[in-house]
């Protein structure tokens, strides 16, 4: 599992892990987009899923979560998960489904995250993310592949970013402490994903043989 606040680059890190080590990238947001049809539907579906998890308490959380996970491919070498768990309750629910081998926590300065999120735009249909500072579209305001307009999510607007980051910090603290107490947490700090990645690669290389050399 890769943990990190919004805009920390955990999705990028997970994609690189999957590609370099032959693992399945398990993204809760992507599952919702594929199963519900588009980012807008995924947002609604995420709200529904969250409400279901809240209502059923600890007893039935695992079965609700399992319904949203994709079929596990065979043979299955392993998976790298982003977007879950976000709370202590979700972490305990995940325990009912699988046993985690490793948890990576990305520690990015909040000022850096504020700048990243405020510059982030998305393609609603696919969920593709662009950043106007370091990953802009070829043509400003439109998706590279479809030519359709990009939008800025309401929660990526500057006034909403600070509240999102505070909420993440409060919710993630007990999750991080849980995995730290189990001895499976590894934290990496920095402001650039490209500089953090080599350390993540080295850590994973000590656990599982890589399929690709370090990028």
From TrEMBL:
InterPro entries: Adenylat/UMP-CMP_kin (IPR000850), Adenylate_kinase_lid-dom (IPR007862), P-loop_NTPase (IPR027417)
Pfam families listed in its UniProt record: AAA_17 (PF13207), ADK (PF00406), ADK_lid (PF05191)
Keywords, in A-Z order: Kinase, Nucleotide-binding, Transferase
Coiled coil: none
Top-level lineage group: Eukaryota
GO molecular function terms attached to this record: AMP kinase activity; ATP binding
UniProt domain Adenylate kinase active site lid: residue ranges: 120-155
Keyword check for Transcription: no
Family named by the database record: Belongs to the adenylate kinase family.
Descriptive protein name: KAD4 kinase
Species this protein is from: Serilophus lunatus
Taxonomic lineage: Eukaryota, Metazoa, Chordata, Craniata, Vertebrata
């Amino acid at each position: 599992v890769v943990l990190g606040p919004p805009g920390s680059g955990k999705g990028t890190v997970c994609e690189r892990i999957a590609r370099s080590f032959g693992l399945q990238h398990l993204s809760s947001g992507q599952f919702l987009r594929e199963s519900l049809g588009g980012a807008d539907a995924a947002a609604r579906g995420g709200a529904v899923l969250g409400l279901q998890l809240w209502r059923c308490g600890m007893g039935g959380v695992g079965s609700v979560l399992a319904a949203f996970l994709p079929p596990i491919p065979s043979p299955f070498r392993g998976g790298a998960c982003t977007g879950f768990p976000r709370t202590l309750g979700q972490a305990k629910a995940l325990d009912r489904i699988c046993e985690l081998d490793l948890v990576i926590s990305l520690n990015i300065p909040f000022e850096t995250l504020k700048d990243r999120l405020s510059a982030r735009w998305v393609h609603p249909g696919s969920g593709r993310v662009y950043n106007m500072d370091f990953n802009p579209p070829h043509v400003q305001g439109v998706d590279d592949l479809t030519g359709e307009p990009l939008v800025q999510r309401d929660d990526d607007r500057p006034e909403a970013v600070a509240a999102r980051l505070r909420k993440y910090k409060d919710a993630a603290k007990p999750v991080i402490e849980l995995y730290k107490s189990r001895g499976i947490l590894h934290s990496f700090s920095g402001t650039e994903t490209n500089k953090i990645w080599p350390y993540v690669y080295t850590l994973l290389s000590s656990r599982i043989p890589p399929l690709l050399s370090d990028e």
